[in-house]
Amino acid sequence: MALFDLPLDELRTYRSASTEPADFDSFWAKTLQEAREHDLAARFERVEIPLKTVTVHDVTFAGFGGHPVKGWLTMPAWANSPLPTVVEFIGYGGGRGLAHTHLLWASAGFAHLVMDTRGQASVWGGGETPDPVGSAPAFPGFMTRGIEDPENYYYRRVFTDAVRAVEAARSHPLVDPARVAALGGSQGGGITIAVGGLVPDLAAIAPDVPFLCDFPRATVLTDRTPYREIGNYLKTHRGRTEQVRRTLSYFDGVHFAARGRAPALFSAALEDQTCPPSTVFAAFNAWANEEKQIEVYDFNDHEGGGPYQQAAQLRWLPARV
After folding, report:
1. 272: annotated active-site residue
2. pLDDT attached to residue 136
3. Which H/E stretch holds residue 266?
4. Which of 18, 186, 249, 278 is catalytic?
């Protein structure tokens, strides 16, 4: 697929038409307050694996509703004092996978917590975090679960889990709570942006080809999943478009970006039909902190920069945590 979205010079000034709900801040303050009524109960259980340069802990903490959420915490084996830390969120359909598959950030001298995504992890990766909350009828996938009301929407639970993941990481004695960054690709990038808007004192964020941004444009611009799940739902549930748009407005990365206080490194791919570049630039252009930059991959689809973007993150992040 050749370029299909706006030209790059227009992307750099593009602004989303997404309308922010008047009660956006109070909705999320109430959501997080309710979550914090449950003891975080973060547990870190050492996992014995035949790796010499890192240590791994099986993580469990209380997320939305007090539900147990899993993760891995990996850090350099030599660590004996608080470290800069990366909290990572996972792409759509995936899970935390096996403990030995998360070595990059520990190898660079960071503590690294990767969060399982509730109810997912059966497309790739594998995971152990169920979502015990049901919903009204939904199109297969996760995008329309509970989409009839913001209180019930699936990503209300996921974004809350992600904020609690940062809190869990900060509770570990070998994590420096003042030097915590968030990152992730695709869905993980969208979650990263949400966390960047909800946690005011992160040291940095690095969303890679992020999903869950600029819903009004994304849902009509691409026919790829996961965004297409929303269109397929509305194809059957005729007449609910405004109701769905209202729900999605509480979860749009553009509105979280407007509250982002941390330095940010984004990436976009100009042939990306899964997370179209205009939707990524919508969040990037809205990001409130002026210390921000975006890596652009001209001829890539949703794979984006891949290892090149990891290399960019490895150059950029150490100066900020």
Report:
1. yes
2. 78
3. strand 264-269
4. 186
